[in-house]
Amino acid sequence: MTTQPTHCATPIGDDELRALLLEYRRENWKGIQLPEIQERVVEDLISGDALALLRQLEHYIKLSNSSRVLDVGSGVGTFVVACRSRGMKAFGVEPDRIGQGAKLNSIQIARQRLAASVFASSVGEMLPFPDACFDLVTMNQVIEHVSAQQTVIHEAARVLRAEGALYVACPNYLRFYEPHYKIFWLPLMPKPLACVYLRLRGRSPAMIDQLTYTTNRRLRRLLATLGPEYAILDLHREQFLRKRAAGSFAARSTRLVNKLTALPLIRSLVLWAILQYGSLTEGGCEMLVMCKPKAAA
């Protein structure tokens, strides 16, 4: 844990938060994102629905206002603040590699948003918490910034209670898009080529060395190293299957494809092909890991 002050007497309001976020992003994301994109990101951080993730996860796990939550890679603290607003005992861990060495970093902002001391300046490879103390651990758009991905996954599992769950979301680098720079991207583009490409587009390649290209399949393999006692749910797949069962697809093309999955003889093959296609082309990966119930003796 850091020895710096970890809380403030009076949490800042939205206007102060907006000014700090704009300063932080202009300083730390210069050359990575265009200024107009940075402004949109700031507005999303302030006015976005930070509790949407909890509502999504409540389809699969039991959470209460007394649940203990750890957000690994908590950034400016938005998810932790939202959980605390529901009464949850939420904590955040943030190394802030992007802002490291800058005048203002994300954890400094996070600590001004709550009076409680809940943010630790630490890394996912070595969490400053005892074993089995959290009901939910989240890593939202974090694992792609980690080089020792397996270590971080196992460390997150270490601090989970037996009935707890681990949520991991990240970009899918099989798409023709890079979500940090927000530009066209070749899937799994070699990093030397990526640096040249970014310079040609007038962008800084500073973030490239911080990225570990991750795909749906790679993430599933990483999570599988936790062992057979853990169940892995692909949340995009589960959402598709729920909509299929309810017949609630909005797009005409999706409704047509869904009808094909009901045809005799070929429905299993069509459904398999759709799920495989989705795992390759969807914009991101979302997985939920839960410890399987132990069989009664």
What does this protein structure show overall?
The protein is 38% helix and 16% strand. With 297 residues, the chain is α/β, with parallel strands linked by helices. The chain has a single domain (14-234, 283-291), classed as 3-Layer(aba) Sandwich (Rossmann fold). The strands form two sheets. Strands 3-2-1-4-5-9-8 form a seven-stranded mixed sheet, with helices on both faces. Strand 1, helix 4 and strand 2 form a beta-alpha-beta unit. The longest helix is centred in the first third of the chain and has 15 residues, at 14-28. The chain is globular, with a radius of gyration of 20 Å. Mean pLDDT is 87; it is low at 1-5.
Question: What share of the residues does DSSP label as strand, in percent?
Answer: 15-25%
Low-confidence stretches: 1-5
Q: Give me the number of helical elements.
A: 11
Q: Could you tell me the radius of gyration in angstroms?
A: 20 Å
Instruction: Give the helix proportion (percent range).
Output: 25-40%
Morphology call = globular
Major sheet strand order: 3-2-1-4-5-9-8
CATH uppermost class: Alpha Beta
